[in-house]
């Protein structure tokens, strides 16, 4: 079941935790940062080893070899990560990029799906995060959605705040933008420059690399935007503690 699916918040924020301005990101398009978001939210977790219970069940039910003398390989159903977002974040994604490809999109809204711009029949619409995951579980059973690999909450502020109340939210993937921009929306946890904040603490780069499944540049990234301005930022992982 999806009752215990862990969720990770993924967010980019300024030093004062600003995340949005007038329904969009406060900074100019950061191509490499957005590419990191897309890679990390698409990447499936490594397959988990069989549990003792599942293993015992398999031992008593499966034969050792097939007609050709080879071990039958159970190819489980395909999996796809899930991205959960609020209505305003959905609307902020350029129409050509939504639904976010290669991921199961869940939009949190009290409106019905018909009145939400860009929502197609593969997008789940639910009034809350837990209701959305319950609906996803039913879609999986009916073969209408793939079983989830990892789950990500991608904003905005209201959805992050609701998610942070859930014990299943175990980690925050933060991109710390090192310059300030005018913002009208703030991330609802005061993650500080000192690696501490509101019951969360920053993990080291090795732990981050293991978590995201790729290497991460030491000391951060400098990205040139609009062939002009340089924007510095750093990928971080925070956990409860
Ligand atoms: N987290 C991080 N680290 N950076 C972000 O920019 C970010 N943005 C959101 C949530 N978490 C984030 C919400 N806003 C797209 C646009 C806006 C958005 C999230 C995603 C988007 O268009 N994504 C495409 C990439 C398209 C491209 O390659 O330019 C995708 O396929 O993910």
Gist of the model:
The protein is an alpha/beta fold and 241 residues long.
Can you identify the CATH superfamily? Dihydrofolate Reductase, subunit A
Q: Note the main sheet.
A: 10 strands, mixed
Element-by-element helix/strand order: EEHHEHEEHEHEEEEHEE
Shape: globular
**CATH architectural group:** 3-Layer(aba) Sandwich
Helix content: 10-25%
Query: Taking Cα atoms only, what radius of gyration do you get, to the nearest Å?
Result: 20 Å
User: What is the count of structural domains?
Assistant: 1
Mean pLDDT: 94
Beta-strand share of residues: 15-25%
The total count of strands amounts to 12
H/I helix tally: 6
| Amino-to-carboxy terminus distance | 26 Å
CATH class categorisation: Alpha Beta
Which ions, cofactors or small ligands are bound in this entry? folic acid
CATH topology: Dihydrofolate Reductase, subunit A
Structural class category? alpha/beta
Low-confidence blocks of residues: none
Care to describe what's here?
- This protein has 241 residues and is of the alpha/beta class.
- The protein has a single domain (7-46, 79-240), classed as Dihydrofolate Reductase, subunit A.
- 24% of the residues lie in helices and 24% in strands.
- It has six helices and twelve strands.
- It has helices spanning 31-42, 52-61, 87-92, 129-141, 157-164, 205-212, and strands at residues 7-13, 18-20, 82-86, 104-108, 124-126, 151-153, 169-177, 185-186, 196-197, 200-202, 221-225, 229-240.
- The strands form two sheets. Strands 1, 3, 4, 5, 6, 7, 9, 10, 11 and 12 form a ten-stranded mixed β-sheet that branches.
- A hairpin with a 2-residue loop joins strand 9 (196-197) and strand 10.
- The protein is globular and about 65 Å long.
- 28% of the residues are buried.
- The model has no long low-confidence stretch (mean pLDDT 94).
- Bound molecules: folic acid.
- Folic acid binds at residues 10-12, 25, 33-35, 37-38, 89, 92-94, 97, 100-101, 154-155, 175.
């Amino acid at each position: 079941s999806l009752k215990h699916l862990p969720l990770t918040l993924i967010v980019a924020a300024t030093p004062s935790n600003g995340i949005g301005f007038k329904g969009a990101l406060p900074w100019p398009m950061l191509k490499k940062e957005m590419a990191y978001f897309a890679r990390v939210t698409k990447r499936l977790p490594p397959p988990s080893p069989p549990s003792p219970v599942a293993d015992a069940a398999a031992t008593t039910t499966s034969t050792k070899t097939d007609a050709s003398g080879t071990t039958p390989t159970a190819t489980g159903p395909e999996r796809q990560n899930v991205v959960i977002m609020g209505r305003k974040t959905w609307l902020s994604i350029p129409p050509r990029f939504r639904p976010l490809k290669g991921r199961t999109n869940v939009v949190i809204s009290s409106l019905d799906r018909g009145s939400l711009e860009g929502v197609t029949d593969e997008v789940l619409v639910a009034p809350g995060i837990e209701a959305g995951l319950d609906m996803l579980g039913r879609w999986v059973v009916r073969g209408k959605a793939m079983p989830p690999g990892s789950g990500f909450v991608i904003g905005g502020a209201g959805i992050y705040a609701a998610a942070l109340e859930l014990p299943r939210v175990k980690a925050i993937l933060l991109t710390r933008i090192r310059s300030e921009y005018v913002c009208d929306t703030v991330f609802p946890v005061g993650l500080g420059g000192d690696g501490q904040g509101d019951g969360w603490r920053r993990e080291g780069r090795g732990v981050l690399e293991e978590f995201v499944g790729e290497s991460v540049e030491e000391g951060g990234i400098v990205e040139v935007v609009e062939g002009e301005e340089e924007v510095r930022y750093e990928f971080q992982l925070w956990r409860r503690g």
